[in-house]
Design a protein that fits this description.
Two copies of one chain form a homodimer. Chain A has twelve helices and eight strands. With 265 residues, the first copy, chain A, is of the alpha/beta class. In chain A, strands 3-4-2-5-1-6-7-8 form an eight-stranded mixed β-sheet, sandwiched between helices. In chain A, strand 3 and strand 4 form a beta hairpin. In chain A, 53% of the residues are buried. The structure holds adenosine-5'-triphosphate (ATP) (2 copies) and magnesium ion (MG) (2 copies).
Chain lengths: 265, 265
């Protein structure tokens, strides 16, 4: 099972949009996929029309009550399952702060079913707290959505530093698979400057010992497309809402590029 | 002194862009302004060219060591001061979790100098944790930047609920002054739908007992404008970088609209 976290502590760079549409594109290509929502905002859940109701098990139950993964997921499309989040999850940061090995709770629950799916994708909150540490400890790969803006690039150093700490102390096999440009206006000067900065940075790190030594800038870039902002209100991925628009084309290409990168683990 | 928090736990809706450019527009209009950066990403600080160095007092010192406000601010423009943030602030969430009255630390430090400035503006992180609670406890007004997208509107209920709890338990005079539409593409159907939903919601609440009963949707809307995304890389507000562009016009208008709303407290 490939285990991928979609992560960037900068807010609003397209983490949820990428998680949901990547999961849907991969399940459309015949892979069995589970999307795990680790954001208390529960936007990945809402994006696929899932709202946590009383009695339904969510991510909160997994982390705070160690409810097995099997009991917290729902099927939403033929090959796609979702483990929903809820607002209670916001309390987990403080509730878990005293627990032994608090960063490893999710890893242990996922490892109980190591081949439950072909791919597992985790949508993270805009922070590097205990929820995100649980994600980084339980996956093998990180994909970083990045809007080609200065403030988004500014935080990349801290994000990579955190993955490096997790590799040293919690999860030695963790790697950054790549960075995907999102919300792209391909013509602007700013985009070119940011892309140049980023390529230079990744080039310099190549072959070193860091978790991002083999990271690449994905060839597929996600163009700005209003239909990607409209589809969450219908509880559908872009493939269920507007399957022929630029957004669907870009995410299908990105899914293909990621699936071609590695043999299924 | 008017005390305003710029707040929305949804990521990437323009909190930092609004805080910095509003502060700069108001200081340009002759008001003395202090911008306080409560986000561990320290983007408001970076936007104005301030990077916390060793030995410099930051927001972390204020909250964890109760360093007086006077010792943590720097002047960056003729009428504009900044209390910078730093990455250490991310640790404050757990470090403060056991402290008595942890939400009131900032309020007490600011109340030691109740008339230090005409206006104080707080930029918040994309979360509703202890840092944001400190902001809500120490201000009188909340301004909510909102991108007219479904996922941004989705979280508004939780944000308002949190302001209501703060009003009940920590800060009885807290009010939501208004919502400002940011990153606006005025032509799209989605914007019209979101604006209608929002107006209907605010209309229904009018005259009630909630902190948002008098909240309005500001007439000024902030249009999408690439220069607003370029200026942070020069360490300047939009007024220092491109004073005649749409972004500068929109934020100058918004500053006027807010200053006209209330007599200076
Ligand atoms: N390529 C795109 N074109 C147009 N709109 C987009 C695109 N990608 C994302 N959006 C919209 O931009 C906003 C931010 O995206 P999204 O919520 O996915 O980011 P995020 O990183 O998950 O945010 P958060 O930090 O709050 O979790 C959303 O309203 C989304 O609908
Ligand atoms: N009106 C605008 N036009 C174009 N770009 C904008 C506009 N407002 C903000 N931006 C850009 O959009 C991105 C998000 O804005 P910003 O960082 O201010 O949001 P935020 O809510 O503070 O994010 P976070 O949740 O990470 O704190 C930034 O790269 C910023 O430069
Ligand atoms: Mg998200
Ligand atoms: Mg910000």
């Amino acid at each position: 099972m490939r285990r991928i976290a979609i992560l960037n502590q900068k807010g609003g760079v397209g983490k949820t949009t990428t998680s949901v549409n990547l999961a849907s594109a991969m399940s459309g290509a015949g892979k069995t996929v589970c999307l795990i929502d680790l954001d208390p905002q529960a936007h990945a859940s809402a994006h696929l029309g899932v709202t946590a109701t009383r009695g339904m098990n969510t991510m909160y139950d997994m982390l705070v009550r160690q409810t097995p993964w099997e009991q917290t997921r729902l099927q939403v499309e033929p090959n796609l399952w979702v483990t929903p989040s809820s607002l209670d999850l916001a309390a987990a940061e403080v509730e878990l702060s005293g627990m032994v090995g608090r960063e490893m709770i999710l890893r242990d629950l996922v490892q109980a079913e190591p081949n439950a799916f072909d791919v597992m994708i985790l949508d993270c909150a805009p922070s590097l707290g205990v929820l995100t540490l649980n994600a980084l400890t339980c996956v093998d790969e990180v994909i970083i959505p990045l809007q080609p803006h200065f403030l988004a690039l500014h935080g990349l150093g801290k994000l990579l530093e955190t993955t490096s700490l997790v590799t040293k102390r919690l999860n030695p096999t963790l790697k950054v698979t790549g960075v995907v440009l999102t919300l792209c206006d391909l013509q602007t000067k700013l985009t070119h400057e940011i892309v140049e900065d980023l390529c230079r940075f990744l080039e310099k790190a190549r072959g070193g010992k860091t978790p991002w030594a083999d990271a690449e800038l994905f060839r597929t870039r996600i163009r700005r497309n209003i239909k990607l902002a409209e589809c969450p209100s219908f509880g559908k991925s872009i493939f269920g809402y507007a399957p022929t628009c630029n957004g669907a084309e870009d995410y299908a290409l990105l899914a293909q590029e990621i699936l071609n990168l590695q043999p299924a683990v």
